[in-house]
């Protein structure tokens, strides 16, 4: 914030955007509980600048992904989704070893995944970033090149992550409003698969062909990016 | 809080110096790189057995947060947790006391002892 001018209102808009999606997903923990940016800013402070509504939920949950070859998948009960690209990166471990807090490990994992898939951020129809905290999403948007450095806050505040936005993101409601069982990353892929298959119900992004899941682990230490597309 | 191994072989000199209110860093004899926490090798060039040197005690706040929830029973919120860049180069995760130092502010080394634990390096604003 000191370096790039990001504001608490912009952070709060991340949580409000995720919550807008949760209203379209009956399985979301906060389905029926509307959270606005003002609600986020009025919630109690956990560690400045983050309020409790800037932090993901703590819930139970789980997920399974079946990964197989195209020949096997051809006979499966549901239409397969293709892994177009994947990348992973570890930048440091301890937070004190973080050289530049405005650049995360997603810079490398995103470059690898997008490169393997032969796509650019402009080709992505749905984005499923790990939203452990609202700031994590802003870092993901910049690390992966959806926004220039320092521009993610304004991008989110313009509503582009929300239903109908230019980059529909956290479409199940996210860790912020859907659920967060700890290892949330696999749930990102489940939602990405549902979007690409066109089975996301009221929250379906029309015509979604390419979806990206992006997880961050450790202490902003590691990242994994997966590009999924129609088979 | 799990029992912390205060002094394993690689950190024993650091904790011994802490009892004398001295913050030790490691400096590589080959390339001059300073590092913290202690390791048996230089993280810049790989040379073994870096030398111990005293930190001068000056630093600059790189990032800071005020913690408002209890995390450990021996630190009562609110308290300020920060990344401080020492003038020698290493970045420390530490606490700030004695005022509301902001990102970019100059701070100086101080020490805190709690519950018979070894003294730990903390920082307070540099007198203006």
How would you summarize what this structure contains?
The complex is a heterodimer of chains A (231) and B (128). With 231 residues, chain A is α+β, with helices and mostly antiparallel strands.
Task: Please describe what this structure looks like.
The complex is a heterodimer of chains A (231) and B (128). Chain A is of the alpha+beta class. Chain A is 31% helix and 16% strand. In chain A, strands 3-6-5-4 form a four-stranded mixed β-sheet, sandwiched between helices. Chain A has a two-stranded antiparallel sheet with strand order 1-2. In chain A, a hairpin with a 4-residue loop joins strand 5 and strand 6. In chain A, helix 1 (8-22) crosses helix 5 (134-143) and helix 4 packs across helix 5. The longest helix of chain A has 15 residues, at 8-22. Chain A is globular, with a radius of gyration of 17 Å. Chain A starts with 7 loop residues before the first helix and ends with a strand. The mean pLDDT of chain B is 93. In chain B, the strands form two sheets. Chain B has a five-stranded antiparallel β-sheet with strand order 6-5-4-7-8, with no helix packed on it. In chain B, strands 2-1-3 form a three-stranded antiparallel β-sheet. Chain B is globular. With 128 residues, chain B is mainly beta. The longest helix of chain B is centred in the N-terminal third of the chain and has 7 residues, at 12-18. Chain A binds chain B through residues 2-3, 44-50, 94-98, 101, and chain B through 62-63, 65-69, 81, 83, 91-93, 102-104.
Strand order of the largest sheet of chain A: 3-6-5-4
Instruction: Count the E strands of chain B.
Output: 8
Oligomerization state: heterodimer
| Mean pLDDT figure of chain A | 96
The helix/strand order of chain A is: HHEEHEHEHHHHEE
Give the spatial strand order of the biggest sheet of chain B.
Answer: 6-5-4-7-8
